[in-house]
Design a protein that fits this description.
Blueprint (H helix, E strand, L loop, with lengths): L9 H42 L4 H13 L1 H15 L1
Helix pairs in contact: 1-2, 2-3
Length: about 80
Amino acid sequence: MHVGFTDPDPVAERLQITLLRAAGTTRRLALTLSLTDTVHDLARGAIARTLHIADQTEIRLRFVELHHGPDLAQAIRRRLTQQQE
């Protein structure tokens, strides 16, 4: 799927950089965390659509498996099973 994004206009890019520099550490961190949450949400949504999974726990476990490896995902699965017993 082609979204159609292009490189920003140089004037707009300079303005954005100026605004980010002026924003301060707290605001930049908030923006970074917000963007990270958005990317994670999009990734989990893609996992759900691609693998036809409705269960949110399983979607999150697949995310962990893809991004952090099957060993960690399996360890989390075991811990969740132990907590349910």
